[in-house]
Amino acid sequence: MTSKVPSNSVVLLFCLARYQAKETYENPMDLLLEPKWTIWDHSDMTELLKSAMKKLRDTLESGLHLQKENVILDPDTAHPLRLDISEDRKSVKGHKPVKPISLVPDPMRFVYNPYVLGWQKFSTGRHFWEVMVGDTAGWGVGVAKKQVNVINVDGQTKQWQVRKWRGKYRIFSPLVRSELNLTEEPMRIRISINCEVGQVSFFDARTAALLYTFSDASLVGETLMPSFYLDDGACLTLP
User: Fold this and answer.
1) Segments forming the whole domain that contains residue 232
2) N or C: which end of the chain has fewer CB within 10 A?
3) Which of 143-147, 174-178, 202-206 has the largest mean confidence?
């Protein structure tokens, strides 16, 4: 019987198997080192994941934590003739000027409208503060968006506020200006901002009732400051 000649593929596989066996035999330490390298790789990856998880946790905690703020007023932004700010910068009163007003636009100070801004600035996280409005009329509380390259702060500053004007409550923003129907008259208002999603919410601080929420994507990533509006005779206090 004539023997069958192996095919080329069989010969190739046979030679490859002998070569691999020879290599394994000539480098026996490779068999021991490979698991060690694998363990080291996994250990190194574990530390990397721990670091990434810590950064994620810190980011979430800073963004989710609602921070109570001790807001004070910035007298450099207040109308010079229509607003009086207390020495501790925690209260402000509105009044009529004793003489006619003749002022020029200012990049920092409101000279046409009786506004004043808070000293604090917020661009990330969640924050809240409260304002005692009492039963006086002609006030507004909320936030203003900081503008760049300002020439006329009155005309260039955008506000998101809840106001009481002529005995009625109103919402006031660049996009929405309408009447706000409330069942009770709030004496103390909480302003809560979420910089991450562009929300500004107003609550009756005594009852925790939600008065109104602005949801505005244009606020995300911007710098926000507490803002206050006072007509003649109004008084606002930061407790």
Assistant:
1) 67-237
2) N
3) 202-206
Q: What is the 3-state secondary structure (H, E, C) of 206-225?
A: CCCEEEEEEECHHHCCCCEE
What's the rounded Cα separation, in Å, for the pair 232 and 204?
24
**What amino acid occupies position 180?**
L
pLDDT digits (tens, 9 = 90+) for 99-146: 666 677 777 889 889 999 999 999 999 999 999 998 887 999 999 998
Q: Where are the alpha helices (DSSP H) in 74-178?
A: 153-156
Q: What's the one-letter identity of residue 206?
A: R
Residue 141 belongs to domain with CATH number:
2.60.120.920
Amino acid at 184: E
> How does 75-111 read in b/e, with b if 16+ C-beta sit within 10 Å?
bebbbebbbebeeebbbbbbbeeeeeeeeeebeebbb
The region that residue 59 occupies, defined by phi over 0 for left and psi between -120 and 50 for alpha, beta otherwise, is alpha
| Same domain, residue pair 123 and 226 | yes
